[in-house]
Design goal:
This protein has nine helices and six strands; from the N terminus they run H-E-E-H-H-E-H-E-H-H-E-E-H-H-H. A six-stranded mixed sheet has the order 1-3-2-4-6-5, sandwiched between helices. The longest helix is centred in the middle third of the chain and has 19 residues. About 40% of the residues are buried. The model has no long low-confidence stretch (mean pLDDT about 90). Bound molecules: uracil. Uracil binds next to helix 3.
């Protein structure tokens, strides 16, 4: 695969044809490339497509997607302004009880190095909203979502806003209020970032300005 001056369309073709990990041998599997405004200022990164996304070919169109849409309304973010993708581009299948599996470290590492790094380079967002621990782990390895959700973190000049994954509220309803509050604060965080105001960014979470948006290959 040659990575020259590629575009999101090329990346999309590669993702749709991908055979880089064992998920490519799953029956009925349909890779789900990122979706949205290629010039977006804000990129949202989730964990992996679910069964509904696997059918439709678009990220966040199932139950998590509905929750996310509601949260984005709270944050006053129109979907036309954003680009949405996942760490893993394929549905990781269900276990024997019908519960969706998480992608393995190896599957995520493969997808990150071949696709997510490139996607970030091409879209080049000012702000990345990392939805859940897998997305956070890809961008800020070592940080815990319970410690840094709803905060603004400067990663080499890109703002990272970690958020609990909206699906977390399905399994832990007590998180719903926290998630709502965090999303409600996004406009203030975005404004601060755009205004160049870094005063409240917790110093322990500010990384040196010359660091690239390096991604954890797991
Ligand atoms: N759907 C997605 O596309 N990503 C998730 O992380 C969850 C559901």
């Amino acid at each position: 695969m040659g990575y020259g001056n590629n575009t999101l369309d090329e990346l999309r073709t590669w993702i749709l044809d991908c055979t880089k990990c064992d998920l490519s041998s799953l029956k009925n599997r349909r890779p789900v490339p990122g979706w949205g405004n290629p010039n977006a200022n804000i990129m949202l990164i989730g964990e992996a497509p679910g069964a509904v996304e696997n059918k439709s070919g678009k990220p966040f169109v199932g139950r998590s997607g509905q929750l996310l849409t509601n949260m984005l309304r709270l944050a006053d973010i129109q979907s036309a302004r954003i680009y949405t993708t996942n760490v893993a581009k394929c549905w990781p299948d269900s276990d024997k009880n019908g519960k969706q599996k998480s992608p393995t470290k190896k599957q995520m590492a493969t997808c990150i190095s071949h696709y997510l790094v490139k996607e970030l380079e091409i879209v080049n967002p000012s702000i990345v909203i990392a939805l859940g621990s897998k997305a956070l782990g890809a961008i800020l390895p070592g940080e815990k979502i319970s410690d840094c959700h709803g905060r603004l973190i400067d990663k080499g000049g890109t703002a990272i806003i970690p958020m609990y994954h909206p699906a977390a509220a399905i399994h832990q309803p007590r998180l719903m209020n926290v998630i709502r509050e965090d999303f409600t604060r996004i406009p203030e965080l975005v404004k601060r970032w755009m205004d160049g105001d870094r005063i409240d960014v917790p110093s322990e979470l500010v990384s040196p300005g010359n660091e690239n948006l390096a991604i954890n290959p797991y």
